[in-house]
Structures are given as structure tokens and as C-alpha cells.
Amino acid sequence: MNTGVIGLGAMGAGMARNLAADGLLAAVWNRTAAKAEALAAELGVPVAADPADLANRCEVIVSCVSRDADVLEVIQALQPALTAGKTVVDCSTIAVDTARQAGALVSETGARFLDAPVSGGREGAEAGQLVFMVGGEAEAVDALAPVFQAMGKQTTHMGPVGSGQATKAVNQIMAAGINQAVTEALAFGQASGLDMGKVIDVVGGGAAGNWFLQKRGASMVDGVFEPGFKLALHHKDLSICKRMSAEMGVALPIIEMTLKHYERLMEAGFGEEDISALFRAKRDLFENGNMKSL
Ligand code: NAP
Predict the structure, then answer these.
(1) Which of 66, 120, 187, 201 could join 130 via S-S bond, C-beta 3.0 to 4.6 A?
(2) Angle value at C-alpha 36, between 30 and 39, nearest 5 degrees
(3) Do 205 and 242 sit in the same domain of this protein?
(4) Does 259 fall in a domain?
């Protein structure tokens, strides 16, 4: 099952490496050519000239780019080379409506489309331990089992196109709440003068333990915020969640608060840092002794 990967960022590079390890990777393409050339040389696969060239070489096209407009741009570039028998699997996090629009564009060609957003972070992508929440035809999901298994540890078919992204919105609201809780609690611990290595170890071993504390706790208290998951991308996701909630007539506190906090951090130039950079704002509360910074 010849598979190509488009978008070799924090997530796509790890996904491509794991597809290569299972003998499935046939080509890669990245907007910034240098990234594609370096990874292609490492993995011994060709760099496609453009997305259509990649689609000509592959039955399965996995894309993992940044935002809604980027996904549509990639789909339009793929379109001339899509035919029946090919499947586009988009792993970017985008709005449900955009996933449906992408699905309709792909269907026009006779090819199939799956919206397959992921959870597990850069580490999950590197380790082949991603969780896929997938919308589209169940049969197409089953047919691609070897591709999903190469990249992940769990694949769940959620329903028609768009339902993968709707599920990912649930995940992103939860991730925002966890980020708020972990950054605030660790800033409090640091301001209390505790040994933070011990705090992370003992709290992480109990009922409050979680993935984010385990993976980002030590780096954030050291003031290191290398992505991981870029804060500006989580802001994009929460903006989608905000629109979805507004359509249901509600404004959810975690979404509203986190968007506000992220906007302040982005204005201060921290949008390309990991989402754990929220710790900067929480730490600031203790250093300034007031709530002005939030
Ligand atoms: P990233 O490191 O910033 O990489 C983004 C990739 O998309 C790069 O390869 C970039 O190419 C490419 N790209 C962006 N716009 C494009 C366009 N218009 N045409 C073609 N390629 C384009 O981001 P990431 O962390 O891998 O995230 C990718 C997607 O996965 C996002 O939707 C994100 O929300 C989602 N996600 C991320 C995580 C995480 O923990 N990082 C977890 C789950 C889901 P260039 O190299 O040319 O910039």
C-alpha cells in the first residue's frame, strides 16, 4: 500500500518515519523543500515534485498541515491526480465544515477522503503511538488498517466525514483545561519553594497524574517551551471549538479563558512556543503579585 506524506512538521515527520519503518512510505512532499529533502535522504524515499506528483505515486496520501486554508490548498493541488482507488487521509486539526468541504472536493474525483485528526503529540508521532479519530466510510478505514497501525496505537471510526474533527474538538477543549490546571498548579508549587522534581514525581504518580504533566512538567518549570504543540495552533483549534459552541448557544469558560490567555502570549511573541508556555503567564501572577498579566 504505497503511502505518501504531505507536511513534514512536528507531527508529519514522525508519521513518515513510522510508515517507512513498516515499508509503506513511497514519497514525501513538504512546502519548504529542504525539510522534505533531508527526511527523504534519511529514509531513502523520493521527494515528490508537488502534491499531484505525490498522488500519482501513491494509493494513500496522508496530509498533516497547519490550518483549514492550508488543507484546502493541498487538496486542490492533489485534485488533478486523484482517481478512484486512492484515499486522502487528512490528519490536520481543522473545522468540521472544512473537513466536509475537503471530502466533497476529493469525492468529485472518485477518490475517498478520511478526516483523521490525531492525539499523542510529537512524541506519539515519533513513537508510532498516535490515537486516530476518524470520519468517513468505515470500509475505507478498515482497508487502511496497515497505514494507521504503522503510525498509531488506536484507530476509532467515529462516523461520517467531519466526525473525526468533531471528536478532536472534544480533545482540544480537554487539553486546554489540562494545560490551565498543570501550569497554574506548578507555578503555585514553584512559588511555594518546593523541590519541583519531587512535586512532579509524586503528584504525577497519584490521581492528578496526566500525560501533559509527565511530558511537559519538568521543562516548563525550567523555563523551556520548545514545541511539541505550538501555542498558536492550539489557539486555532480553540477558535474552532468556540465557533462550534456558539452554534450550540453557549460560551464555554475553558475555551474563552484559554483563548484570552493565548492571545496575550501570542501578542508578546510566544505563539511559536509549546502550549506549556502558558506557564509564563501563571508564573508572572506570582512574580507580580496581582492578576494584571492575565
Ligand atoms: P508544524 O510543526 O508547524 O508543521 C506544519 C506543517 O504544515 C509543515 O510541514 C508546513 O510546511 C506545512 N504547511 C503549512 N501550511 C501549508 C500549506 N499551505 N501548504 C503546504 N504545507 C503547509 O505543525 P504540527 O505540530 O506538525 O501540526 C500539524 C497539524 O497537526 C496541525 O493542524 C495541528 O493542529 C495538528 N496536531 C498537532 C499536534 C502536536 O502536538 N504538534 C498534535 C495533534 C495534532 P513548512 O515546513 O513549509 O512550514
Answers:
(1) 120
(2) 140
(3) yes
(4) yes
